[in-house]
Prior knowledge:
Largest sheet: 8 strands, mixed
Oligomer: single chain
Amino acid sequence: SCHGGPRRHLRHGMRWTILLAGGAWALDVIVPVDPHGEACVLPVALGSMLNATGATQVYLLSSKAKCEELDKAGTEHVCLDENNLVPGLTKDRVKDALLKHGRPDAKPGWYFQQFLKLGVALQDSKLADLSDDFLVWDADTIATKPVPLTRGSKRLLYADTNSPIMCYLETYKRVFLPASASLGEIGDLLNAPSYVAQMGYWSRPIVQSLVASITPDARQNCPGCPWWETILANLSPYQDDMALAQDHHDWCFSEYESYALHALARYADQYEVVATDITSPSAAWIRRPPQGSVDGTTTGDCCPTAASIAKVAAAVPTSMYFSWETHHFKGGSTCAPKATPLLAKKGRASVPLYIINLASRRDRWEHISEQFTQAGLPFERVEAASATVPWDERLVMKTWNTSWNAVYNKDMASRVVPLSPGEAGCARSHVGVWKRVAAGTAPLACVFEDDADLDEGARPLLESAIDELPSSAEMLYLMYQDKNPSGNRPFSTLLFRPSVVFWTRGYCVTQAGAKKLVDMLPVVGPVDVWLAEFAFRKLQVFATTTQLGKQSRQFEGDSDIIHSTLTSGLRPKVMKERQQRLRQLLFG
């Protein structure tokens, strides 16, 4: 059931009884489940895990809606509402804490599921009957043979000698090691393997000991905060260093790493490490299927089958388990939930989603198309207008007056300046989409630029926001810079009437709104400023209270557009300062 229920013991083929010196005991399993993950992977992963470990009880942790969905599908496992399990710990509170502590680009769901795994073992957890020894298992991890959890009287810790992640170690040191820690203790961290092994055999008392070991210094950085927020307040300063943080530059904490390091430091006599190079042909376990072993997924079939699992087992015959991480497969951007037309299920006309992209920016296209594919959103690429081609001033004027913009930018002088070629190309790209929407049949379309990052739950948020739009609406901002919050007017739970917002990274426009925009041409100035200055007067404009995403950090400072406000629209003193900084960056 979604809110708990009786312990249900399961029978899935061959089973093993776990034995230590004291005899046999029940083994519970904690499996956080992504509400938007691959539905076909979970049952395969759970079935293989049960047969490989001899576990007796599975607890799925997911959203209330996902639990209800799994219950309706007839799951025999207990599904618990993830937001009603550990007192004070919810996904929204994790999101708020990340914003509070300067981590707006980090993924709250990623941290949330880690804190759940630890939190269920604490004494105030609502999962009071969790076994003292329990297994944590990632929902996409598939076992291909029995996975030993003990050897003699010791528990096993699986480790990877090939890919330690420095920022995980640094966060562990900042949160759990006192400033007086010996050089030996800190040095051992630098030589440690990675214990991020997709699963772990844990002890409740050791988890409680780990959380209790958060240092006073760490707690001073977040006075009165719960344990999980204290961790967020002390994340590694390597977060912004891609070379050190690797591909986890926004994600500098690991529950697996922290548990293992603490267990080995204080309870070494209870554990034995099984270390393997996961890139080796004789690896004991592997992170993901070897390239080529699941080529069938490049067609978009992301569901594991007996044949595809057998291919993985044959590719690395020594491996006991692997993760079916579809976003890492060859052709990963096509291996995701197949997108259905937006809103088609509600009996309304489908909403086309257009992404503006320059032909020369293949890197941006690969990034944004994977974002939309993983979100289950259908999309169509629109070729961006070139900045090097002369343009028609009936569409976009070549000069503009910065006076109105200067009201919202204290560094800007009021004057007439030339529009840069990049700004003109951007405006012409949006104008092209407006003309297409105005002449088309869809009553509503959405437009995105290729440097966006979608937040978790982008599709349901977009659907809900569109569903709340009144019939009079003509434009809906999804990603924006709010320049006058005090002038905004509330409208509904998901929508408000903005006063002044900039950016055209993501918005929707109705056919009627597109026709009005086309009738208002030419664009005078940067397209986002022109819309805020002129279009807001003639169109019914709304914005989402929760933005659909943000600018991708991957492309910050990597714009193809030179802004006219940075070349001739600034006040002289500011202009001189920026020119000096730019000269220093370029020439040292």
